[in-house]
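thread: overnight batch results

M.L. [08:02]
morning all. the overnight job finished for the chain we discussed friday. pasting input first so we're all looking at the same thing
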Amino acid sequence: MEKPVIILGAKGIAHPALEIFNSNQVIVYGFLDEDENLHGSEINTVPVLGHTEDDGFLKLIGKKTEAFVAVDDNKYRKFLVELLNDRRKVQPINAIHHTAYISTDAQIGHGNFINAKVTLGAGVEMGQHCIFHTGAIVDHKAKIGDFVQIGAGSIINSEVVIEEGAFIGSGVTVVSGVTIGKNARVGAGSVVISSVGANETVFGNPAAKVK
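M.L. [08:03]
and the structure it wrote out:
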């Protein structure tokens, strides 16, 4: 990648996103964050320049820099993605750690965060603006929607479908063929053996609906 990157967001996955770009010898120009208390500070020598909606910095994106959205909260993440689409006419780039394994025929959208040791198997279809934490495994022919977050060490078995906005905690196992509905939440360490409906929260082994 020839252009440096501006990272939108300076908390949560922002620091590991910086490490991912460093691991790929990509220069990070700086961070933007809505928290004014962070302005002027540094993350591993890289400055937090200003606000995420500051046109003075946003005007660089698409011309002199690329952009990556490093925000965990889906609502604000979507807002920033739309801001980049509308105001700068650009899509955020992917942040993929150099130790991740991605099958040659996996399909990946824009703006995804894929941390160290993540595995995406043969025929995986992955949407846009997802967050995959360290060591997550997605087996062959699984389908992952947009804005999905998968916790560290989770195992998503073959032909699982995870719909838009779903959250999978750390250390979760989802057995083959299960569907996780839109905006559903799966608690850390759960074993999911049957499908989870939209907006449902499940937890446990086997995972059961939390009332």
